[in-house]
Amino acid sequence: MSAPAPPVGRPVSTTDWARARELAQLAGTRHRIAATEQRTLAAALGAVLAGPLTALTDLPAFDTSAMDGWAVAGPGPWRLAGRVLAGRTPPPLADGWATEIATGAQLPPGATAVLRREHGERTGPQLRPGPAADPTPGQDVRPRGQECRRGEELLPAGTEVTPAVLGLAAACGYDLLTVRRAPSVELLVLGDELRTEGLPAPGLVRDALGPMLQPWLAARGAELPAPRAVRDDFALLRDAIRHSPAEVVVTTGATAAGPVDFLHAALAEAGARLLVDGVRVRPGHPMLLAELPPAGARGAARHLVGLPGNPLAAVAGAVTLALPLLAALTGRTGSAEPGGRCVRTAEPLPGHPADTRLLPVRLTPEGPRPLAFDGPAMLRGLALADALAVLPPGGAAAGDLVELLAVPR
């Protein structure tokens, strides 16, 4: 079968940038992954909690000392006896007695407070508080259950498992976490002109998108094989889309109306339904989102995100469509997708006359500042950027509130 010629000047019904992100999120929410799995703490990083994280124990699990010093019972002066170190179970402490104690050690039964080392005056077997340093009951003690009680909900379902979440789970006694199964994603890198190693050559360029997008999508909880290169051939592209077992297919390039931009035709033959076809954003306006017929053993609903081939434009497409879709598929909350944080500008930020613009910026104490090398085919500015500033048509004036989106890390 011969390749259909892409229609020259194909009319595109473009979508507002905010609406496009909303549609991507809705598509993922409709097909949210219900399957769960248990992972060790080491393997759970980046996944999403399938249910609330509840405390398996009180935190702290016992009264502990918040300082190095002495555990004391009653008012001073005190007679000294022994030492309590972390990891030991101390004997009871009688009224009028004190024992040396380390930070984090269990408070002896009967102790009423902790006297800091710098506040105590030791004379032989006797300990006195320094001037105005007599501890009040409970002073420098972390009481049992101060942070949480057993059975208390600590984090809601949908929370991303970050290093801090792992630390909290470990402190509560978890060895395994129940998380949502990661969505399967396949990255198809399109183009005859792409090289995967060595220097660019006449007519050939290095593939920058595979090395950048692959780890970025994986960090958002996706399960990916190695990127797959697809030549500029209609049948190859159609079959790659039709037979991909992934729940989300991400393509780079072929989204416009050039002589080898076969993506729209391939989607039509694969039985896809377009949800977003072009977005009013610069760079990256010829991006798309489509719903694909189910395929593979799982038989789950599938989606395709078509990113432009220019590197910065592809990043714009990823934050606009791919990341909100992935976040919704796993019920992810509290992440940079679909919304970011807002800050006030330090200076005017240039926008596009009619479309939303995503501009690489550095964050300073005064506010975001624009970076050079911000063209659709450039990555130099992005490599230096702390975020992408979301600018309305016409740009932003100094002091305006603008949204910031995370960049690949």
Automatic annotation (TrEMBL):
Matches recorded under SMART domains: MoCF_biosynth
Pathway in which the depicted protein is active: Cofactor biosynthesis; molybdopterin biosynthesis
Any Pfam family: MoeA_N
Composition bias type Basic and acidic residues, residue spans: 141-152
Gene Ontology molecular function terms on file: metal ion binding; molybdopterin molybdotransferase activity
Chain ranges of the MoaB/Mog domain: 186-328
Catalytic activity, reaction form: adenylyl-molybdopterin + molybdate = Mo-molybdopterin + AMP + H(+)
Record flagged with keyword Magnesium: yes
GO cellular component: cytosol
Cofactor entry: Mg(2+)
Superkingdom of origin: Bacteria
InterPro entries assigned: MoaB/Mog-like_dom_sf, MoaB/Mog_dom, MoeA-like, MoeA_C_domain_IV, MoeA_C_domain_IV_sf, MoeA_linker/N, MoeA_linker/N_sf
Function as written in the Swiss-Prot or TrEMBL entry: Catalyzes the insertion of molybdate into adenylated molybdopterin with the concomitant release of AMP.
Name of protein: Molybdopterin molybdenumtransferase
Organism: Streptomyces tateyamensis
